[in-house]
Specification:
Order of helices and strands: HHEEEEHHEEEEHHEEEEEHEEEEHE
Largest sheet: 7 strands, antiparallel
Strand content: 35-45%
CATH class of the largest domain: Alpha Beta
Mean pLDDT: 85
Low-confidence stretches: 1-41
CATH superfamily of the largest domain: Mog1/PsbP, alpha/beta/alpha sandwich
CATH topology of the largest domain: Protein Transport Mog1p, Chain A
Strand order of the largest sheet: 2-3-4-8-7-6-5
CATH architecture of the largest domain: 3-Layer(aba) Sandwich
Distance between the termini: 32 Å
Number of domains: 2
Structural class: alpha+beta
């Protein structure tokens, strides 16, 4: 698991721009002050759809329809939740080094502890993005079966203007806990056919993984597995050129060597236009270098954003898997 790369992706803020936030803060801080000044009380514990994490979110946050978590449209703030098996906790915790985070643009890292009695990792940081500067509050928690990474992203302008009080997000993170049962899922897509694959869980804020074992974690660390991944975008920013976007996404696939394209073409699935790329690569496992074949489909999402569908199979099993991948992709349906 490339933890730091995952953090950069899953904790990317939403679509507010630096100018938009600054303007909003300037116009709204006076009008909203009377509301926010008395808004210290936390709401009752909530779970995002499909999530086991219960958390008392600050007022004016609401469940996001685009990713696993919550958002405040007044300030452009987000609380993004990623859940993984409990055995991933130690690896993720070890990956949070100042040096590794700095390589991904996450700076001014300060590690501390929250007022919690459980084992946890907590740190604050900053990140410069194309949408402006963000303060980040990152919490990793666990129980026996599961772990959860909770990342709060607050535009610097909303903090410095007084539009949002950081004490509220700290109080919110203090209440976060993993429960046995997940809330009902509310995925923006459906797969009508899975064949030999089973739903395993979420990889990032919105990406869902399907494996033959039904487990997110491989039985053996580093094992190369057949998999299906569906990743809706966490925002609805317009993608002006889906073909160019698909090619950039293909070229940035992590963890693969000798990546080459065999076929690429425009495609339409479930009424959504997109771009299809299929090719070969190799991936290192603890015991060998395993040849794989990869299919990537980028689809334009109605209202903005995209869906990214990935199928990854061992080349030795291509004859068996390719027809199954065809059926799975053909069964994809967006949910409004």
């Amino acid at each position: 698991m490339n933890v730091i790369a995952a953090i950069k992706r899953i904790s990317a803020p939403n679509r507010f721009t630096r100018t938009g936030i600054a303007t909003l803060a300037a116009l709204a801080v006076v009008a909203a002050s009377c509301l926010l000044a008395g808004a210290d009380a936390m709401a009752k514990p909530q779970k995002a759809p499909g999530s086991r994490v219960s958390i008392e979110i600050p007022e004016y946050f609401e469940v996001s329809k685009l990713f696993n978590g919550f958002m405040n449209t007044y300030t452009g703030s987000t609380i993004i939740i990623v859940e993984v098996p409990g055995e991933a906790y130690s690896e993720m915790a070890a990956g949070f080094t100042v040096e590794a985070l700095a390589k991904k643009g996450i700076t001014k890292v300060t590690k501390s502890k929250l007022d919690r009695k459980d084992e946890h990792v907590f740190f604050t940081a900053e990140q410069e993005t194309t949408r402006g500067a963000y303060y980040k509050y990152i919490l990793l928690i666990r129980n026996k079966q599961h772990a959860a990474l909770i990342t709060a992203n607050m535009p610097r302008a909303s903090i410095t203007s007084g539009l949002f009080d950081t004490k509220k997000i700290l109080a919110s993170l203090t209440t976060a806990k993993l429960e046995a049962e997940a809330a009902p899922s509310n995925d923006p897509f459906k797969l009508g056919y899975l064949g030999p694959f089973k739903e395993a869980g979420k990889l990032r804020a919105s990406a869902k993984l399907y494996t033959e074992s039904g487990s997110v974690m491989p039985a053996k660390k580093g094992e190369v597995r057949n998999a299906v991944i569906v990743a809706p975008s966490i925002n609805q920013i317009n993608v002006p050129d889906i073909t160019a976007f698909a090619k950039r996404a293909w070229g940035s696939l992590p963890g693969y060597d000798n990546l080459k394209v065999n076929t690429e073409k425009p495609i339409t699935i479930a009424g959504l236009k997109g771009y299809f790329i299929e090719g070969d690569a190799t991936r290192k496992s603890p015991d060998a270098v395993v040849p794989v074949f990869i299919r990537q489909i980028l689809l334009e999402r109605k209202g903005g954003g995209y869906f990214r569908l990935m199928t990854i199979g061992k080349t030795a099993e291509r004859a068996k898997l390719a027809p199954e991948f065809d059926k799975i992709v053909a069964s994809f349906t967006p949910v409004s």
